[in-house]
Structure to design on (640 residues):
């Protein structure tokens, strides 16, 4: 249970702290929580299967689209997106229901693409999932029946969740991802991650469990997209591109992609870092001199940090281990044997 | 008939560029298991050198672009990739992602985020009409340059001692090392070749567009990388064919898709990539069981 409680308490404390620092920190916090959902969603596939996916932003985008189309008022929709398909133009839903539908759409998209993609391994899987992301981004950019005209942004998304409920949703997503991680399917998948020859030999269908994991994580990513859309209030297909993918993957890698705890630590750490750097970019007065970092230095720091972590500590800050109750003797089976760099990065 | 031939020529020249990009990536992957996303920034660096120095003197610009590309390629390895040789291809790919972003910001810091324009080899933008066909000189140069470089790489790999060592390292680095190849030299030569290929890509692309910005090389690299993967990463020739196929398809979709679908041409290319990987998970020339399951 500690593997669930520790991350939740940490997220809660982090939120409590950040929301009291400054108004700017509170705004960044809601972005951090939305990103946290996305990264936890990615962990539930990448962490359990050990297969790299560059495509999760596709489900995030789909979730964001669903949420926005269901919550923007029909009047605004008809003016911003005149070519919208009739049923989408009329559709509207309560924010909570819209959130659930966003999860469902994300999950279904992942399920369908999972049937195709989950037979691939390693780098090929990475490229194929990336192709999926680009495919989805292109469709969302240019298909005016489901969104604004080519590449324009969708505006008028109402803010339906305050900071408290965003935090609550993030905690729920952590619980869901954790419970999935406890399931038989996820355990079998982790077995296949550790040894891809022995697992099928013991009758585990890797493909099947990967599809399940992909679907679960697609649904959670859909929630992440929905929350991101309503935090940002403006969405554009091009937002879900390489930079966003890179940032979320960096969070997962820095924290340690084999554990849920790693996903949480990585996201919170980099989000906090982002906030501090953002403040510095705007200029800080230190002893009468205004010091400011050049804009864009955030991404540089994140990238440099990630490269350093991959070189120095390939399994991430947490070493790929789950959080444990700190006052318990170390389990001899957990020290040394698990989380070798090779297993951590395949 | 004319439009068909016309679009085939255009597609061949587009394919040639991506084939060069894919070959550079494929060579490095073969030896180092590194799918180098930061190859795009090598191209960008060479493009900046070309654009800035062309008005000064064109031979200098060409030489500088090659030097910059080779130096960047070697430096990247020295600073980052050599410290993580034992890691998985996926981890290397992500690290190269990071390097790519770092370099993009670096260019932004030096040259600004905006597009820098100028003209490189303006003589090549002319086109001649041959029996109704519009032959752009640049397209011909692209095809010829690609052919020469590909032939040169082929001859180097098959005829020279060093080339054979590179091929051996590409087949199995550890065994090759035990058998006495000079691993440091092989790695340096491979990176150097990929730098030269990147400079060639930069030349064709800058001559085409006459504009460079910090993300200039990204598109060619993404398509090159995808081409290398669908061609089959464990065969150097596969990367070449895959890259060519991606460029060819992109160009054909651009000229032949009905106007309503033309916006989706890139989407069709990605769909094609997924379909190819579904049919041949290891790439077109990847072989059936050559790769371990990871």
């Amino acid at each position: 249970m500690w593997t669930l409680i520790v991350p939740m308490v940490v997220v809660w404390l982090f939120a409590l702290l950040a929301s009291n620092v400054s108004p700017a920190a509170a705004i960044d916090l809601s972005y951090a929580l939305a990103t946290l959902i996305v990264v936890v969603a990615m962990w539930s596939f990448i962490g359990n299967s050990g297969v790299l996916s560059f495509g999760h932003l596709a489900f995030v985008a789909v979730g964001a689209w669903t949420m926005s189309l269901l919550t923007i008022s029909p009047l605004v929709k008809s003016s911003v997106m005149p070519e919208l398909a009739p049923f989408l133009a009329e559709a509207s839903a309560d924010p909570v229901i819209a959130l659930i539908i966003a999860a469902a759409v994300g999950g279904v998209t992942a399920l369908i693409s999972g049937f195709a993609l989950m037979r691939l391994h390693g780098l090929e899987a990475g490229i194929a999932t990336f192709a999926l992301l680009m495919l989805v981004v292109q469709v969302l950019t240019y298909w005016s029946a489901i969104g604004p005209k080519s590449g324009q942004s969708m505006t008028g998304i109402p803010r339906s969740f305050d900071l408290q409920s965003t935090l609550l949703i993030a905690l729920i997503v952590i619980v869901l991802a954790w419970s999935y991680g406890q399931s038989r399917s996820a355990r079998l998948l982790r077995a296949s991650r550790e040894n891809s020859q022995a697992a099928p030999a013991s009758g585990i269908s890797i493909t099947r469990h990967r599809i399940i994991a992909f679907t679960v994580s697609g649904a959670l990513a859909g929630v992440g997209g929905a929350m991101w859309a309503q935090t940002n209030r403006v969405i554009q297909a091009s937002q879900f591109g390489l930079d966003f993918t890179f940032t979320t993957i960096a969070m997962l890698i820095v924290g340690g992609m084999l554990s849920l705890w790693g996903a949480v630590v990585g996201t919170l750490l980099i989000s906090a870092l982002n906030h501090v750097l953002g403040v510095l970019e705007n200029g800080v007065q230190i002893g009468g001199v205004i010091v400011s970092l050049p804009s864009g230095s955030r991404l540089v720091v994140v990238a440099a940090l990630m490269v350093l972590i991959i070189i120095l500590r390939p399994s991430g800050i947490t070493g790929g281990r789950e959080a444990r109750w700190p006052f318990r003797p170390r389990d001899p089976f957990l020290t040394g044997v698990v989380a070798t760099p090779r297993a951590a990065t395949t | 008939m004319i439009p068909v031939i016309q679009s085939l020529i255009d597609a061949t020249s587009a394919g040639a560029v991506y084939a060069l990009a894919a070959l550079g990536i494929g060579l490095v992957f073969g030896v180092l298991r590194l799918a180098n996303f930061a190859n795009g920034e090598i191209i960008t660096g060479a493009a900046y050198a070309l654009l800035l120095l062309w008005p000064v003197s064109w031979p200098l610009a060409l030489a500088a672009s090659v030097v910059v590309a080779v130096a960047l390629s070697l430096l990247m390895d020295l600073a980052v990739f050599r410290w993580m040789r034992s890691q998985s291809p996926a981890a290397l790919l992500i690290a190269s992602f990071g390097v790519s972003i770092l370099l993009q910001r670096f260019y932004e810091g030096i040259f600004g985020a905006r597009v820098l324009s100028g003209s490189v080899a303006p003589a090549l933008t002319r086109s001649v009409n041959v029996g109704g066909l519009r032959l752009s000189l640049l397209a011909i140069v692209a095809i010829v340059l690609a052919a020469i470089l590909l032939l040169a790489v082929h001859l180097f790999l098959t005829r020279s001692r060093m080339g054979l060592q590179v091929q051996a390292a590409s087949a199995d680095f550890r065994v090759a090392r035990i058998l006495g190849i000079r691993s440091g030299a092989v790695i340096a030569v491979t990176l150097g070749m990929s730098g030269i290929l990147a400079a060639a890509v930069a030349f064709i692309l800058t001559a085409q567009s006459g504009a460079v910005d910090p993300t200039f090389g990204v598109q060619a690299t993404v398509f090159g990388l995808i081409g290398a993967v669908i061609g089959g990463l464990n065969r150097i020739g596969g990367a070449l064919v895959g890259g060519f196929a991606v460029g060819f398809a992109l160009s054909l979709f651009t000229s032949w898709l009905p106007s309503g679908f033309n916006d989706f041409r890139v989407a069709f290319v990605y769909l094609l990539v997924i379909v190819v990987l579904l049919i041949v998970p290891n790439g077109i020339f990847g072989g059936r069981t050559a790769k371990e399951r990871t």
